[in-house]
Amino acid sequence: MMRVWIKYIIMFIVVVLLQVLLFNQVQFSGFVNPWFYILFILLLPVSTPGYAVLLLSFLLGMAVDIFSDTPGLHTAAALVPGYFRASVIRMLSARESEQSDYPGLMQTGFRWFVSYAAILILIHHFVLFYLEVFSFAGFFRTFIRSIFSTAFTLFVVVLSQYLVFRD
Amino acid sequence: MWSLLRYFYRHHVLILFILLEVAALFFLFSRNNFQRAVFLNSANHISGNIYARYNSVVNYFRLTSVNKELADENARLRQALYATAGDSIPADSSLIPEILVAGNYDFVAARVINNSVNRQYNYLTLNKGARHGVRPDMGVATVDGVVGVVLNVSDSYSTVISLLNQRWNVPARLSRNSYFGPLSWDGKDYRYALLNDIPFHVELQEGDTIVTSGYSSIFPEGLMLGVIDSFSKEGGDNFYYIRVKLSVDFKALTYVEIIRNKQAGEIETLEKLSGDDAGLD
């Protein structure tokens, strides 16, 4: 139990630092912004109680906000996939009887993980980008931004499963 | 009573979600007052420190271009010095606006330790803070032109609202004929901004220089902003749509200067007086 805690604390720090020191500096024409930190919410154990997922999403968003000078933005955005995570897992796992508690790619299989990650990243990015613009004036532009950034974040998240965070 | 408690228990996740979301949205939308009061920004001790350390590593890779920038700046300053050594200051010198020479402003050199250009609201973090005499609402510029304005200050770091931030615009004017209007960013491309409120009868040319108007105490008059890239008359509007190519390359910012107006306090007190007056009637 203690080991799991330490592992997730380290993961939290690593994910936030990677986000602010590496991915925030990646700027493809101001259009594609990878928001990698959501990986932490994705990788929480399946059995984590709902309130804990929410509190951790809140802390995670706040940590990213402090570094990005966007008070509340990432906090508000990270809570939404945190809330829908349980439903998405239930929806995807309907037919599978036996499943690992750790929802990593190696444990759950490529298809399961990619659809799980894609849905939650998409929800997160849409909320994030529309909150950031906070108007539907540039509706189409923001829409495209969300889609492209989702694709990029998904790519990085899947890649991370082959490099680190394997178990 | 019990059924109410059971109801709350059954929906405790949803209730918690709503409570936290409301808290987050409160941070988001009351940012102006809140951010100044609380340490929820990158000028705080921990994140400022991490950015400073990170930056001291990354900066090694940029040394070549920084050296070149400094050499260029040296050359320009020396040229200006020779130009002024003979007789008085050239009247049209955009390099040293007259007001700078008059000694109203002094500068604090600072290093950019965090920067972004890809958000709708971009901010910078600098490695100078209250200890070095930096205060909120001071202007930030490089030799190339305006960068932004100081928002928050901690002991040894400060955050800056970038020109690339839709919440802020710079009072600007055309250097050729002094028509003025706010220069704002549209959130699209970090190399371009828009100059607003220039009426149709003004004659424009591509390549016209845009400088600060000096209508605020933040920036001295005549500081470079950019040049007109293109302009058009949009239907149904009384003003030109002017795209300005910014003179500062925001993606390559390393060293900046914080501009301290020695008379800002005096100007503000004076303006407050007229503000109070307007409130009387």
The gist of it:
The complex is a heterodimer of chains A (167) and B (281). Chain A is mainly alpha-helical and 167 residues long. Chain A has helices at 2-22, 39-43, 50-68, 73-92, 105-108, 110-133, 139-163.
Polypeptide structure, described:
The complex is a heterodimer of chains A (167) and B (281). Chain A has helices at 2-22, 39-43, 50-68, 73-92, 105-108, 110-133, 139-163. Chain A is mostly helical. Chain A has one domain (2-163): Arp2/3 complex 21 kDa subunit ARPC3 (Orthogonal Bundle), CATH 1.10.1760. In chain A, helix 3 (50-68) runs antiparallel to helix 4 (73-92) and helix 6 (110-133) runs antiparallel to helix 7 (139-163). By secondary structure, chain B is an alpha+beta fold. Chain B has a 6-stranded antiparallel barrel with strand order 1-2-5-4-3-12. Chain B has a 6-stranded antiparallel β-barrel with strand order 6-7-8-11-10-9. The interface between A and B is large, with 37 and 41 residues.
Low-confidence stretches of chain B: 33-37, 86-93, 97-102
- Which band does the percent of strand residues of chain A land in? under 5%
> Count of DSSP E strands of chain A?
0
**Most residues in contact, chain pair and counts:** A-B, 37 and 41 residues
Radius of gyration of chain A using CA atoms only: 15 Å
How far from one another are the termini of chain B?
57 Å
Global geometry of chain B: globular
Overall structural class of chain B, as computed from helix and strand content, comes to: alpha+beta
Rounded to an integer in angstroms, the radius of gyration calculated over CA atoms of chain B is 23 Å
